[in-house]
Design goal:
The protein is mainly β. The protein is globular and about 45 Å long. Helices cover 8% and strands 58% of the residues. Strands 1, 2, 3, 4, 5, 6, 7, 8 and 9 form a nine-stranded mixed sheet that branches. The N and C termini lie close together (9 Å). Bound molecules: zinc ion.
Length: 144
């Protein structure tokens, strides 16, 4: 376990670009506002989604595509540094026209139809992701 206490920063609300990649757009908003550490939330819709599930035994992500129009019921995640650049880690739940839910780790390839994003920046320590030998994941390192 490791933790840090953080202070308040900027609050950014953004309308993301139709047709753009969801992760790329969140990173672009963070960069535009010079944000290196933040929490993010979003709602909206995608033309198609690409999600991932982490296989803990194999220590690898299994990606799957949902090539259909879906509502973004809830996206929650964070922005922190990876290789010195803002990176997004987010999970989301999506619903189809009958309310059936799909969910997982957001991968590259989620094409935005419309999306409203809230970024809440935190000040203080900068968290940087590095490879974790136990889980195989890029986790925050150097926490107190
Ligand atoms: Zn994840």
């Amino acid at each position: 376990m490791g933790s840090v206490q953080l202070g308040d920063g900027k609050r950014i609300m953004a309308r993301l670009t139709h047709g753009a990649d969801l992760i790329d757009e969140i990173i672009a908003v963070a960069k535009e506002h010079h944000i290196e550490l933040a929490q993010c939330w979003a709602i909206g819709a995608v033309k198609r989604a690409r999600l991932a599930y982490y296989d803990q035994d194999g220590q690898a992500y299994w990606e799957f595509a949902l090539d259909r129009h879906l509502e973004i019921v809830s996206l929650i995640g964070n922005v922190s540094l990876r290789d010195g650049q803002p990176a997004v880690h987010a999970h989301a739940s999506f619903a189809d026209e009958e309310g059936r839910m799909y969910g997982g780790h957001i991968a590259a390839g989620c094409e935005i139809f419309a999306c409203e994003l809230l970024l809440v920046e935190y000040s203080g320590e900068i968290l940087e992701r590095e490879h974790d030998g136990v889980t195989g994941l890029p986790l925050w390192q150097k926490l107190g």
